[in-house]
């Protein structure tokens, strides 16, 4: 199974859903419209591609891109063919909600809760979406790039030393 074969299968089945694709470090990475992510993952799992293991779900925050400020990244794996794929969906800050994959993968439950906890991304249809690692009354999502990384009174370090 090759990246080209899988990408062609996805674009043939969902021609309007694929926004872009690339192969960083040899891993097929496909950006999908957020309203179609569940259909695409369902297809990858139940088709002859048999990409049936959900490795990870995580969030990402790009405050410099208002239309694609918040993202969810899915890593999926076909263990028999040792094929990996990364799917990405992006959304503006005002509408941070995406379909839950808990119906397809039981392991998505905790991954989606962690992503909600750290980034505030809501997963539509999740059976128990609440904080999992942070205190429930924390009041903010700590992985969003909204807060200084260092104490403002320090002169020996600033945010530019941390990639900002």
UniProtKB/TrEMBL annotation:
Q: Describe the reaction catalysed, as an equation.
A: a quinone + NADH + 5 H(+)(in) = a quinol + NAD(+) + 4 H(+)(out)
State if Metal-binding is listed as a keyword.
no
InterPro entries hit by this protein = NADH_DH_suC, NADH_quin_OxRdtase_su_C/D-like, NADH_UbQ_OxRdtase_30kDa_su, NADH_UbQ_OxRdtase_CS
PROSITE patterns tied to this protein: COMPLEX1_30K (PS00542)
Membrane-related topology note? Peripheral membrane protein
What Gene3D superfamilies is this protein classified in?
NADH:ubiquinone oxidoreductase, 30kDa subunit (3.30.460.80)
Q: What is its EC number?
A: 7.1.1.-
Q: Which UniProt keywords apply?
A: Cell membrane, Membrane, NAD, Quinone, Translocase, Transport
A Pfam match: Complex1_30kDa
| One Gene Ontology MF term | quinone binding
Q: Outline the extent of the NADH:ubiquinone oxidoreductase 30kDa subunit domain.
A: 30-151
Q: Record's GO cellular component, any one?
A: plasma membrane
Subcellular location, record wording = Cell membrane
Query: Cross-referenced PANTHER family, in alphabetical order?
Result: NADH DEHYDROGENASE [UBIQUINONE] IRON-SULFUR PROTEIN 3, MITOCHONDRIAL (PTHR10884:SF14), NADH DEHYDROGENASE UBIQUINONE IRON-SULFUR PROTEIN 3 (PTHR10884)
Briefly state the protein's biological role: NDH-1 shuttles electrons from NADH, via FMN and iron-sulfur (Fe-S) centers, to quinones in the respiratory chain. The immediate electron acceptor for the enzyme in this species is believed to be a menaquinone. Couples the redox reaction to proton translocation (for every two electrons transferred, four hydrogen ions are translocated across the cytoplasmic membrane), and thus conserves the redox energy in a proton gradient.
Q: Which family does it belong to?
A: Belongs to the complex I 30 kDa subunit family.
What name goes with this protein? NADH-quinone oxidoreductase subunit C
**Biological source species:** Chryseobacterium piperi
